[in-house]
Design a protein that fits this description.
alpha+beta; Phenylalanyl-tRNA Synthetase, Chain B, domain 1; OB fold (Dihydrolipoamide Acetyltransferase, E2P); 20 helices; 41 strands; catalytic activity, acting on a protein; aminoacyl-trna synthetase; RNA-binding
Length: about 800
Amino acid sequence: MRVSVKWLSEYLDLSEIKPVDLADQITLTGIEVDDVTLPALTLENLVVGKVMAAEKIPDSDHLKKTVVNIGKDESVSIVCGAPNVKAGQKVIVALPGVKLPNGLKIKKSKLRGVESNGMICSLQELGFSDSVVPKKAKDGIYILPIDAKTGHKALPYIGLDDAYIELDITPNRADALSMRGVGHEVGAILNQKPVFPEIMVSDDRTENVDEYISVSVEDEQDTPVYKMRIIKDLQVVESPMWLQRKLMNVGIRPIDAVVDVTNYIMLEYGQPLHAFDYDALNDKEIKVRRARKDESLVTLDGLKRELNPDNLVITNDGEPVALAGVMGGLTTHVTEKTQTVALESALFESSVIRKTAQSLNLRSESSSRFEKGLNTAVIEQALDHAAQLIADLGSGQVVSGVAKVETIQPEDKKVTIALDTINHTLGTSLVMDEVVQLMERLGFDTETSARPLTVTIPPRRWDIEIEADIIEEVARLHGYSRIPATLPKNESIPGELTPKQQLVRETRRFMEGAGLSQAISYALTTNEKAKAFSKHDADPVKLDWPMSAEHQALRMSLLSGLLDNVQYNVARQNKRVAFYEIGRVFHAVSDNKLPNEITHLAGALTGPRIEANWQEDEQDFDFYAVKGILEEWFIMLGITDEISFVPTQTFEELHPGRTAEIRWQNKGVGVIGQLHPALAEDRDLKETYLFEIDMDILLDAEKDTLIHAPIQKYPGTKRDVAFVVDETVLHDDVLSVMKQNGGKWLKAVKLFDLYQGNTIEEGKKSMAYSLTYQNLEATLKEEEVTADFEKLKTALVENLHAEIR
């Protein structure tokens, strides 16, 4: 919200405070100030000039030599290239020495041999944006009114003698999205009561609005208030200079007197209005309703908008003529030929306007105010003011009466709060009179006859509803700097990590020690990526109103986000990428609005595990390298004996022959495997290996205590066994049989050879294991080891149909 200090001075006495100091006061009371602009500081030598003559310069297709009177019968020669300059005009002249906002410094010069002693300025050259310059001055200089005084300063005529305070309005303070709202706020800060001019409508009693128009609404929830006035016998003229000036300096382009008044009233009251060309309406009935399926509307910007039942529309003769609260229609907008105006002022349901503006990508000053809320007490007052102003500027007449639908009435709210509650919350020692004075500065009535304080809140502050809101108002007006700073008096409790938090921290250290780097990816992603790599059957949790198509659903797996990070790094010539992430995934619950949040550990690795050097060749990450990292992590957790890796083809995103389900206590807790080659090719990745594990299950489980044992005193012995089995037999199956049948002295099993080739029958494989036997309390006897070893070989033959070699 760009606030004109001069405009604000129409309500308050600001003669004793500088704009910069006022901005500081506003910031200290809770509304952030983004910027303070003082145009007059650099534009002192701008004067009003009268063009006495304008002649084309020979050999130039656009330059003209002008003679300009700049006051006191003094005329100077100025070369001007504007196509609309001509004799008799009052113009803005920058004298030598002026530095324009674009950095150009004006000085005496010669152009085409003609002396130029200044510059006739366009609004763009004075810092105005193209979007706010009136159409007639867009491609040329700005023409001042004929009564502008020659030789006087030009700044007041274009509003650049003013100061502008840029407010960053938060949604809870939408009352400050109007000049009157800011007037109340600044009045409270300076302990002044703002004075607003009274508006009297001089309407034509010979006719009534009912003879022109009737209004109705389909749903009173969507449109609690809808009002309309008629202004007849109108001439649509150019707005006076004061109105153009106010609009341009807050960023709105002047169009004509009717449109400019609606924008002006919106800025003053915060109440959006819309003007219809009455003669362009097909009948005398206006109805507000939801759009029908397959309806469309061409809006003022010339674009055809496809509507849906979430959109609220103004209709006439059954057809949409405007998007309620957002933008008018092209067929009924006011033109220079308009003679009768139907002027609308309404209150629309904020959520409906928000959805319409977002779905159609059509945000406007009007829609932003409807979205944040309106002062219901000024809906008709703003309508009356606008109607009378339009009539005055266009020599028209306001028709008597207001066509209306009004299902709610503006009401004051009462909030009761104890003085002790205020002081206890803020740590202050205010007395009742001080609090009452603060409320009076805000324009709130108070009752103190009973012990608690009862505060009456007018409709213009619809953000105040509960005790906390009153406490906030007291705090900011009393002064945040005056609130005492104290340390908490509660007993201090030493903080420590829970066992689960400790394991998460140790997991981070372990993964980084294993050569992986931590990555953090967005929890929100696309619907497709949200469900990828997940075995959960339900659909992902979706946002009702996502900010973008890339962030519309909560992830059900961490791997999609990690793959995006891997792809990003590989595309930037990072050959080796190894990421891990600890984060939450989200699973929808049918009988609960909130999803289940589950902590997962995931990793993605590609490229060389060991880069080539003078000692060894390059070695890329493979399935077993990644599996080894996880096995070491399981050892750290103390759950290695109950972990198994079972081949699976249930993950369509992973390689069907290089993927295993990670099981713990015969329950699936994760997956490890190679990214499917087709997906890797789509992402321009080489072999990439992934894993993802449900950490919550593992970290919440009871684990074996890690016990450190001394070096063994007694020697052990080893046996080797080689055998041929079906190629479908898993290493885990072999280990299981050996551990169950190897005897109590078997301490370690190690696979040292795996072979398939010409000497082995097709469909078979040869496996060789080294077995370590050891007695912790005595030296092992040969016959004890031999007996256990033979029993183990027998078990291999019986359980796995092994052929001992």
